[in-house]
Amino acid sequence: MFFMIGITQGRKAFEYDQLVICDHCGSYGRYQVFMTYMCLSLFFIPCLKWNRQYYVKTTCCNTIYSLDPELGRRIARGEAVEILPQNLTQVQAGYKSRIKSCDNCGFETQEDFEFCPKCGKRF
């Protein structure tokens, strides 16, 4: 008899929606909250999770912040909480891209068009 055991790193995104003005780039954006963890699997079934860390990513410039673990657990339980700047520690600075990409046809431009010049769909 043999056992199939594996240790992997996982990531889980949470349904969280908070509109903010980014401290890094000054634009409007949203917070996207996610958790990373290590997982022990037995026959591809997750059995044990440890090293849970909670992060916040901004949608405007993709800056990543480490989130207070207690607040992260409350968000994971589905509680309605507000993330304040003192709950965040910057991990990775983001950047605001000037390149627009059409979701329909993939056309990329640096111009400030409202509609795609190739297919006509709104950016």
What is the helix tally?
1
Radius of gyration: 19 Å
Tell me the span between the first and last alpha carbons. 57 Å
Mean pLDDT, rounded to whole units? 90
What does the main sheet amount to?
A: 6 strands, antiparallel
What structural class should be given to the helix and strand makeup? mainly beta
- The domain count comes to 2
**Percent of residues in β-strands:** 35-45%
Shape category: extended
Helix content, binned percent: under 10%
Structure commentary:
The protein is mainly beta and 123 residues long. The chain has two domains: 5-92, no CATH class; 98-123. The protein contains one helix and eight strands. It has one helix spanning 69-76, and strands at residues 5-13, 19-21, 28-42, 45-58, 64-67, 88-92, 100-101, 108-109. Strands 1, 2, 3, 4, 5 and 6 form a six-stranded antiparallel sheet that branches. Strands 7-8 form a two-stranded antiparallel sheet. Strand 3 (28-42) and strand 4 form a beta hairpin. The longest helix has 8 residues, at 69-76.
Topology:
Blueprint lengths: L4 E9 L5 E3 L6 E15 L2 E14 L5 E4 L1 H8 L11 E5 L7 E2 L6 E2 L14
Antiparallel strand pairs: 1-3, 2-3, 3-4, 4-5, 5-6, 7-8
In short:
The chain is mainly beta and 123 residues long. It has one helix spanning 69-76, and strands at residues 5-13, 19-21, 28-42, 45-58, 64-67, 88-92, 100-101, 108-109.
Name the features.
123 residues; mainly beta; 2 domains; 6-stranded antiparallel β-sheet; 8 strands
